[in-house]
């Protein structure tokens, strides 16, 4: 069947395969009919189209990306594939090249990719070390307006915890974030006074009514335990806005009892966890020879404690990750392989749809009657067929109509990649 020939109007997609958890029934994959009319899912049947078992998902939510860094690899390649190499290279490129035009052009390119792959909502982090905060936040606001109705956009500032203290200028960044309706973000790592910095950060967020989003313990050093500090601070201060913590790589390297007690704190504090398996796989345990530890946090154990766990793309063709295309089916495929999500709970698909929407406050993707028919349809009829291929021939519907899935040509960015 050629999905490109689906008729518009009132139709019923007969014999589609749907993850049972997405329609509130027991089991793994089930076959159903799904009707669309006037751009929305409906219970009333229309013109029948036999889908022959094709899998259907609601459009995806990608809750941890870096649209401002995306696609700089051709001019700013990581020299050794390490985390330190990524930090240095991005810092140099930001100072040399991140004008408003440069950031806007690359951001729009990335969004066009995500849209073609079937994503409906994105949270991006924005490097906000002054003066970049005054450059990138206005660009983001323009991009959010431009993409309204296609991809819902949120942004979180990204600043290292060593810059978060009274008198540092971070309050100005927090005001920019608040003015743009954004999320307050910080990278946490074990500096001596990390607890005081986290409390100051949460105080700024509380004063401005902002959600919080942390990059946390992106290292395999088991002594890096800022996740505990954040959970304890949230509990002790009573900070009641949503808090997201991403990466948590060191948790996978800790002794089981210590990791378990930290995860208990995370659950008690109600933190949302987002795992970034592709980027962590690229950076963590990079050494001479074969890597042994891959940096994936303890997603099964966190989920078992009732923690809201999601997966996301993270970086795209920049020094932190040389590959990727903001394709959530790729993220789902790789997370399944890396994290052994197969032979496990049958509702992991929610970690790419409803869970990130809940963490960020986006409208939840759904297949329920009455919601917009924003759908991703794959020729695959089972999980093994879905994950065996890239699903490059998928069809994406927005408001019930198929979109043009032609991906932008990398050559569009060539003029930005020329260096003197």
UniProtKB/TrEMBL annotation:
* GO molecular-function terms, A-Z: cytosine deaminase activity; isoguanine deaminase activity; metal ion binding
Look up keyword Hydrolase and say if it applies.
yes
Domain of life (superkingdom): Bacteria
Which InterPro entries does the UniProt entry name for this protein? Amidohydro_3, Metal-dep_hydrolase_composite, Metal_Hydrolase, Metallo-hydrolase_Enzymes
| Alphabetical UniProt keywords | Hydrolase, Metal-binding
Q: Name one GO biological process term.
A: cytosine catabolic process
Q: Where is the Amidohydrolase domain?
A: 191-402
What is the residue range of the signal peptide feature?
A: none
What's the protein here called? Amidohydrolase
């Amino acid at each position: 069947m050629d999905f490109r020939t689906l008729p518009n109007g009132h139709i019923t997609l007969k014999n589609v395969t749907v993850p049972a958890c997405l329609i509130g029934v027991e089991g793994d994959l089930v076959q159903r009919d799904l009707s669309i009319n006037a751009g929305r899912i409906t219970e009333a049947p229309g013109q029948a189209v036999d889908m022959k078992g094709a899998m259907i998902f609601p459009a995806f939510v990608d809750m941890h990306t870096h649209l401002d860094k995306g696609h700089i690899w051709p001019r700013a390649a990581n020299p050794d594939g390490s985390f330190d190499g990524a930090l240095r290279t991005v810092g140099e490129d930001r100072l040399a090249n991140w004008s408003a035009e440069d950031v806007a052009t690359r951001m729009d390119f990335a969004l066009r990719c995500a849209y073609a792959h079937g994503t409906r909502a994105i949270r991006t982090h924005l490097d906000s070390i002054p003066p970049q905060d005054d450059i990138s936040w206005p660009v983001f606001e323009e991009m959010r307006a431009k993409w309204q109705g296609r991809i819902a956009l949120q942004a979180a500032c990204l600043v290292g915890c060593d810059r978060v203290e009274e008198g540092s200028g971070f309050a100005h960044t927090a005001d920019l974030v608040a003015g743009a309706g954004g999320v307050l973000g910080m990278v946490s790592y074990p500096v001596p006074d990390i607890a005081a910095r986290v409390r100051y950060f949460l105080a700024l967020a509380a004063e401005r009514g902002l959600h919080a989003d942390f990059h946390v313990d992106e290292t395999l050093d088991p002594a890096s335990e800022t996740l505990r500090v954040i959970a304890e601070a949230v509990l002790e201060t009573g900070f009641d806005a949503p808090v997201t913590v991403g990466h948590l790589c060191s948790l996978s390297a800790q002794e089981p009892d210590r990791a378990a007690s930290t995860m208990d704190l995370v659950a008690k504090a109600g933190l949302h966890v987002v795992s970034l398996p592709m980027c962590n796989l690229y950076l963590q345990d990079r050494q001479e020879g074969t890597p042994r530890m891959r940096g994936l946090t303890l997603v099964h154990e966190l989920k078992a404690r009732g923690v809201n766990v999601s997966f996301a793309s993270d970086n795209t063709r920049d020094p932190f990750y040389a590959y990727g295309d903001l394709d959530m089916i790729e993220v789902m495929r790789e997370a399944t392989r890396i994290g052994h999500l197969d032979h496990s709970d049958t509702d992991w698909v929610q970690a790419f749809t409803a869970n990130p929407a809940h963490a960020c406050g986006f409208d939840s993707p759904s297949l329920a009657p009455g919601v917009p028919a924003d759908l991703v349809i794959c020729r695959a009829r089972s999980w093994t067929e879905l994950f065996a291929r890239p699903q490059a021939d998928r069809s994406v519907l927005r408001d019930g109509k198929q979109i043009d899935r032609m991906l932008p040509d990398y050559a569009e960015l060539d003029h930005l990649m020329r260096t003197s």
